[in-house]
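Bug report (template v2)

What were you trying to do?
Predict the complex of my protein with pyridoxal-5'-phosphate.

What happened?
Run completed; filing so the output is reviewed.

Input:
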Amino acid sequence: MTHLINSQLICADYHKDYPMIERGEGVYLFDKSGKKYIDASGCTAAVTHIGHGNEEVSRALYEQSKVLAVHPTHLFYNQALEEYLEKLCDFAPEGFNRAWTISGGTEAVENAIKIAFQYQKSRGHKKNKVLARWGSYHGNSISVLDAGGLRVRRDYYTDLMAGHYHVAPCFSYRKPMQMTEQEYEDSLIEEIRVTIEEHPEIFCFLAEPIVGAALGAAGPTEHYFKRVKEVCVEHDILLIADEVMTGFGRTGKNFGINHYGNHADILCCAKGISSGYFPLGAIIIHDHVYEALKESGQPFYSGQTYSCIPLAAAVGNANLDYIKQHDLVDNSRIVGQYLKDKFESLKEIECVGDVRGEGLFLGIEFVQDQASKSIIDPAYLFNKRVEAKALEEGLITYGCRGTVDFSRGDHMLFAPPLTLSQDEADMIFTRLERAIKSVYSTFLKS
Ligand SMILES: Cc1ncc(COP(=O)(O)O)c(C=O)c1O
């Protein structure tokens, strides 16, 4: 244990002590006492696609930093970035041929919003509001917290927010019980349409293809994104896909939107884009957006110190090479399905209400009882107890809250490195099952 209360860190929890983490290797982390953990969260969360301690990417970082880490970006372009952006756009869906890099996910979303705003403004539209969804997370600056819909993270700061608009997420597990899937989808699309018509100042729709931390890997109904896109086109609104968690093979395809017909105008990327070896985020925009910006003659006012620097590009490049050379997108799909099937068997335990997700992007939702889907008393902190028990077992998990009213409801998000083998998936399953059973039996006695 390390005593954070006495360290210089601004602590998120004033009373909690944490073990000191020391090193990582593949899907494992080791703390200072030598205890070995399997990392099923992908480093809170969904960051380490290629695993810890990767030689190739570490070497690329070192080699590029020896040659050129940064340069005056207002005067020069650089070779590392040129090579990288070509590969990045090639990895993206057809029609996405322009990209720009930054330091992480929050900045990627923020800049996607700025581009969408500029796209509208340069065409003479005075629109200034984002439409996003409750039960979503898009980052931690004030403006993207505002767009996000996770009350546990945003509510404290609402006085600082401009007030973007929100509609319900597409979340079948918690749809009104009397509705069919079709009626549910219809009602969500209608809500989007009505909100846009009531608020003509809306200029973009922002959504995670599969919702990560906020809803625990909740994917949409079959035609949801196709229909959202139709409404967006009808109302001249851009669709921004937040692929910060779902990109780079996390869901068993290159990008989350690949599952649903590639309906987007701007993609936001981070996390698995560099697997954490250097802070990196990116936006990739569709040709039609780029052409409109170019035609307007208005420059994209968004340079920051670390945008488009060669060091970040070299790491992104090596990371993407590694993902492709080791077929990690396919591995995510195959081992992800294997792990999901194992998780399904956890439904034998009454508190496991739902298992969902794609590839190695999986969620488990906990409930008081499966039939009513009622939640466990939030004061019990069920998810945190499972997280703590799993840690004792040598398993790193990510316990989250907010599936019911975006502040209550327990779930866990699983996003291990995409290098995970079936044996390691078995290890995750066994340790998790023990942890859930232990916490649930204590809960029943309480
Ligand atoms: C979907 C999504 N978007 C954006 C972000 C923000 O990314 P970052 O933490 O790199 O700023 C996150 C972070 O978890 C995320 O999950």
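What did the reviewer find?
The longest strand covers residues 96-102. The chain has 13 helices and 15 strands.
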